[in-house]
Every structure is written in structure tokens, then in C-alpha cells.
Amino acid sequence: MSDAATMPAPAQAPAGRTPLLSIRGVKTYYGNIIALKGVDLDVHEGEIVTMIGANGAGKSTLMMTIFGNPRCREGTITYAGRDITHMPTHEIAHLGIAQSPEGRRIFPRMTVFENLQMGAAIRNFAHFDEDLERVCTMFPRLKERLNQRGGTLSGGEQQMLAIARALMSRPRLLLLDEPSLGLAPLVVKQIFNVIRELNEREGMTVFLVEQNAYHALKLAHRGYVMVTGTITLQGTGKELLENPQVRAAYLEGGAH
Amino acid sequence: MALNTSHAPAIAAPGAASSVTGAQVATALREAGIAALLTLGLSIPILAFKTEQNQSNALYLQPRWGVVAVVCGLIFLVRFAVCLRAMRRAAAPARLKAPASPFVQKLFGIAVPLFLGVALTYPLLASLATGGLAGARYWIDLGILILTYVMLGWGLNIVVGLAGLLDLGYVAFYAVGAYSYALLSTTFGWSFWLCLPLAGILAAFWGIILGFPVLRLRGDYLAIVTLAFGEIIRLVLINWVELTNGGAGISSIPRVTFFGVPFDSSENGFASLFGISYSPMHRMVFLYYLILVLALVTNVVTIRLRRLPVGRAWEALREDEIACRSLGINTRNTKLTAFAIGAMFGGFAGSFFAVRQGFVSPESFNFLESAIILSIVVLGGMGSQVGVAVAAIIMVGAPELLRNLGFLKQVFGADFDPNEYRLLIFGLAMVAMMVWRPRGLVGHREPSMVLTERKAISGSLVKEGHG
């Protein structure tokens, strides 16, 4: 199914250990239309894993399928040794997975502070002040705007807020869906730096879905390429960056 | 003329709101003066002198300073007017975006204590104004009516304003509350104070019953199902004759008592207990304070709930359901609590209605009631407690005002009944509201929590529908 053979044996980061998130043969449908045609994917503890692909490839569908919305029709999703395939969305969030969804989905009429509170609701506001301090150091722009409505923030600030809100729950696994969408190159850089720091300093596991292939692959330990609901390539970030197919499809034409 | 490259647009200082300041007038005067002077200069060669022939056919110059003066004066006035107009134009957009003036903010600051003060002393004020308690009967009755709608508005505000679930059948819970008290008190003889919480619980139960099937619905679809629910309840009340006595309703519902002491002229009555002369108005005043307390309880509970996790979950649910779920919020329970708590206050108001009227029939719970309560919430500015109170006063008080406009009869003839035009005027008022204040009377939302200081971010700076 996948022509991973084009790659040298995929560098499975810490080989032999069971992955934190493991997706096996997942098929997701929208009505009768198949969106994911059997996806296998692993995310190990402490890794940054990215998935790149064109519009409509099914990247965001996979992201949402992990959260059970929409639910996959076949296959299994295992997180930290637990089968979460049929678990309600909010319970999945309680297991320590946090998501910055596609299109950010912040609460526009609530203030930045209240948005961050919603992120911490899951932990019953334990360590709230500490976590607030932490995300404010990470995104100083948010600190300036704590009492401002979410809807009045700029796109980049909203993205920062979405990531910060996800971090307020102290997740073990952070899912980021196109954090670079519609942002200025400088802001993209800033956000990717924060992701790298989170991973290096706190060892946070990150699964990143991106169209900005160059940045994503440079940042990630490992990457997957998805084409129309199927994973066609996988390997380390470096390998994929050098892969001629990836270069031709996603990197040519000034992607940087 | 080169003069037109004036610096008029730059003159509009940001502080200039609607009118043009004195400094700007001075600038405009200077501009106009320069223009007049230039005109004068240009006039000297072309306008000031006219060559004429005298009788001996010799040319001579005839001075025309009068014409020059008129032209210069005209140029001066035109230039002055153009300058002022440009300044006003430049100032106009700034006026649209300017935040509420300090006066308006101050008004908001005193609005709540003022309202509360008037509400608490209203029976006294009314009897002073009309010269005696008996004369104030109409006004106190109107006060009770308004407060009932304030309470209903605050109750529905939880469902519509906070949780964002459009409920067109709120009157169903009002009906459940009213019939609960009516049936429990006439069948078992239970007192109002026992039936009140029971009515609330029953209404909350029905709220959950409505909530379950509509969990997946939002917006228009939810509105239709809730509308149907309201009608179902009303039709059941009409048709289940054995229980509800059908369209004839339930009459002779026990009146309210002063915690067990009846309001009558008997030995054990309220008046003789307190050693005052009997007046039927005592019960009215008591009812007034009863509904005031019930409404204030609704308000306080709502304000408290907004600060609790469940309240913030309601608001987050209104903003984005999917984001809520991925943040680990159980949206099903959140929606059901919103429906249940909103319905509970509807139930309280319903049992108050029953004890006040002493008679309930399905006719009191038609769709128009739901529509009025919903309009109160929408007009007040969804989610704003003060706005809902103001809107209730306008929506319920205004028709009463209309009833008293006797002079219109003299204008339009004796057959004219202003009350018949009530809905027309309502419609016009609503259209006007939606044009000029689309976010409702009090359109801004106070954050339930602020970190250090409040920073006013006007709702008008945010995209429509996101304010």
C-alpha cells in the first residue's frame, strides 16, 4: 500500500518501545466517501512527528479522527496502551492529549484569560497560575492581551492563543493542526521555535500536521507524507527533505 | 486654484468628536482669509479697474472696489465653509469608533444601584405618587408583571444568552411551573413554599427531557424543535382534560400566604397579626416583593454560575462546540445543565404566576409569550443581565403606556384603540433596534474574570456576530 520502499528503512526513533500513539489501519468516511484509506502511524514519546500533504489529503481528518470526531469506521487507535478508538471526545482529552485544531477555534467573545482558563478546566485549574505564567513567558504577546477578547487578536496571536490554550492542560501529547496557516513568515518562525523548545526543554511529544513542508520537516524528527487518504512516504525529517519526490511535490517553487 | 491643497484633512484632531473645535475654526478662518487675500491680489490686475471711454474718447480706468470686495467676501465664505466641511468629514469616522464617553460609562456604573433602589422602594414610590396604597394598585400590578418577565428573561438568558441554545419554547417550562403549583396545591393542599421548589424541580426535569433529543441540534433546527416542544406542552394541557381540566383551566388556586399567615381580614390574618388595618393591597405588596426576591435570586445565581466552571463551559459552548469537546468538556452534560437550570427558573416564575392569578389555563402559555421572552433577551443584548431588565421594562411597560395614550383618540377619532397597534409598534421598534443597536441595548459582555485591570474593548470593534 505504501511505497515506503523508496526510503531506506524508516528510522523508528526509539526502536523496540511501544509508541505513545499508535494508529493502525484507520479508515474514516464522510458519509459514503472514504477520506482515510487505512492509515498506519506511530508517535513515540518525546518525538516531533509531522504529517505533510496537499489540500484534501486527509491530514486534518486524521487529526480529528484521533479525537473521535469523526469516528473511524475501521482500525484502531491506541494511546499510552489504551484503546481510544471508541472513546468519547472529551474523555480522550482527559487522557492527556491536547489539540490546537484547524482554524484555531478560539472562543472569540471570551477574553484571552478566559480562553486559557478553558484550557485548564480539564485539570480543575490545578497549577493554573504556574501554567499561566509559563505560557505567558512562551508567548509574551498574550500576556499583554490577557483581558482582551479573543476575537480582537490578530491571526498570529490567535494561533498562539490556541497553542497556549492546549498547553494549559499540561498534555503528554500535543496535536497541532496547521499552526502556520495564514500567518506571516516571521510569526511562523516564532511558533515553530516555540514547538521546538517545548520538545527540547520539556520533552513534549508533538504531532504536527502541516502544509508548510519545509519548516515542518526541518523541525520534525520523523515525517509522513499523505496523499488522498494514504500514507505514501515516511522517514526522518532530513530524509524526506532530501527525497526527490517530496522536493518535487511540496518544496519546489519557493517553499521555505 | 493651488489653494485647494490645503492641510484641512490633517487638521482633524483625533480628540475632535462630533463638533469642530475653536482651534479648527481659527484655522478655517485663516485659510479663508488667505484665500480672500489671494483673490484680492488677483483681482487688482483683472477686476479692480475697468477701462472706459469718456466723452472725449479718451480711455480712463474706472475703479471697481465694490465688486472686488463682494468677490473677496464670497471667496472667503465659500472657502471657510469648505474647510469646515472637510474637518467635519475627517472627524466623523473617529466619532463612530470612539469608545463610550465617560458620561455613558458613569451611567452604567450607577445604573445597577439605581435600578435596585427603585425596585426595592417601588411600592412606596407608587403609593406616594398616587396618594395611597389603594390607588397604587395598578402600578404595583404592573411592577409585578414587569418583574415576572425580568425573571423569565434572566432564566432564558442562561439558555440563549450564555449557552447559545436558541429556545423558542421557553413558555413550556413556565407552564410546567404554573400547573405544578396549581395541581399540587388544589389536589394535595400543599403550601406555596413547598410547591415552589417542587415546581422548579419538575420544570428542570422537563428541561432535561427536552434537552436529550436536541443535543445534536444547533441554531435553526434547535429553534424549530423547541418551538414544537412548547406547542406540545400547551396542547397536552388543553387535551388531557382529566388532569388539567382542559381549556377551562384550573381555578380557585390557593392564594399566597405570609409564610402561613393568610392575607385576609380574619382574626389570624396578616393585618390583625401586625396590628394594622386590613387592606387587600398587603397581598399585592407581598407578591411584589416575592417576585423581586425570586428575580434577584435568578440574577445572583446566574452571576455566580458564570464564574464557576460550568458557567464558563456554557459560554465556551456558545462560542465553539468542537473546540469545547477537544478541551475535554462534556458538551452533553453542559447543554443539559443549561436547559435544566434555565427551565428551573421558568418553573419558579410559573408557580409565582399561578399563585398570583389564582387561575391557570393553557391560553396563558401560547407562543406569543415565548416570543416576548425571547425578544426581551435579544433586545437586552444576549448575555447581559442589566440589558434584559431594561428590555423587560420596555417590552412589558410600553404596551401599558400605549393603553393610556387617550389623547390619540382625539386625533384619530373615538374608535381608535392604540393597543391594537401594539404589535405593529413592537415590530417597528425591533426593526429600528436591529438597525441601530444590533447587539442589543447593552451589547457588551463583561468578562466573568479579569486578571488585574479591566480593559474596555468595545463590542463594536469586533466582527458582527462575534461581539
TrEMBL record, chain A:
Record key words, sorted: Amino-acid transport, ATP-binding, Nucleotide-binding, Transport
Q: Which SMART domains match?
A: AAA
Its GO biological process annotations read: L-amino acid transport
Q: Which GO terms describe its molecular function?
A: ATP binding; ATP hydrolysis activity; branched-chain amino acid transmembrane transporter activity
Q: Which InterPro entries match?
A: AAA+_ATPase, ABC_branched_ATPase_LivF/BraG, ABC_transporter-like_ATP-bd, ABC_transporter-like_CS, BCAA_Transport_ATP-bd_LivF, P-loop_NTPase
Family matches, as SUPFAM superfamilies: P-loop containing nucleoside triphosphate hydrolases
In terms of superkingdom, the source organism counts as Bacteria
Please report the stretch or stretches of sequence annotated as the ABC transporter domain. Answer: 21-253
Q: Which family does it belong to?
A: Belongs to the ABC transporter superfamily.
Q: What is this protein called?
A: Branched-chain amino acid transport system ATP-binding protein
Species this chain originates from: Chelatococcus composti
Automatic annotation (TrEMBL), chain B:
GO cellular component assignments = plasma membrane
Q: Where in the cell is it found?
A: Cell membrane
Q: Does the keyword Repeat apply?
A: no
Keyword field: Cell membrane, Membrane, Transmembrane, Transmembrane helix
Xref: InterPro entries: ABC_transp_permease, LivHM_N, LivM-like
Q: What is this protein called?
A: Branched-chain amino acid transport system permease protein
Q: How does it sit in the membrane?
A: Multi-pass membrane protein
Q: Name one GO molecular function term.
A: branched-chain amino acid transmembrane transporter activity
Domain (High-affinity branched-chain amino acid transport system permease LivHM N-terminal) ranges: 28-122
For this protein, the parts annotated as crossing the membrane are 65-86, 107-126, 138-158, 165-184, 190-214, 221-241, 286-305, 336-359, 371-398
Transferase recorded as keyword: no
